[in-house]
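Good day; I would like, with your permission, to put a structural problem before you. What I wish to show you is a protein chain and, alongside it, a tokenised description of its three-dimensional fold. Here, with my thanks, is the record as I have it:
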Amino acid sequence: MAYEQKTKEHDGSVVEFIETVDHPKKKEDAYRLLDIFTETSGHEAKMWGPSMIGFGSYHYQYASGHEGDSFLVGYSPRKAKISLYFAPGDSEREVLLKDFGKYTSGKACIYINKLDDVNIDVLKALIRQSVAFLQKTYP
């Protein structure tokens, strides 16, 4: 049975999605992140799935044969925290995170409460590093 990828790029409006964010500060941060990610990644924002804003894309294929498409970097202004999506597996990411500020992390996600908790210069470095790592890994 073929695996159907759940999170796909679509032509939904990023601005319309951000406008649905209830919390005023989170909405403000979502717009600031839109500017930061667009400028730093060099890619236009696109909606991926119902709630992720992604920049750029790449096609991956694992040794297992599983393959799909994903965004290079992205974020989602979720109810509890803002999720930031960077490439997992690059040791440089861990070095950069030492000076990032207040966050928690999962496998591919970095979770923040608000942009004021983090170093914006390090955020930009994480975006650049992730884009470069994925473009090199999946040319």
User: Anything to note?
Assistant: The chain has one domain: 9-137. The radius of gyration is 15 Å. The chain is about 35% helix and 25% strand. The CA atoms of residues 74 and 106 lie 15 Å apart.
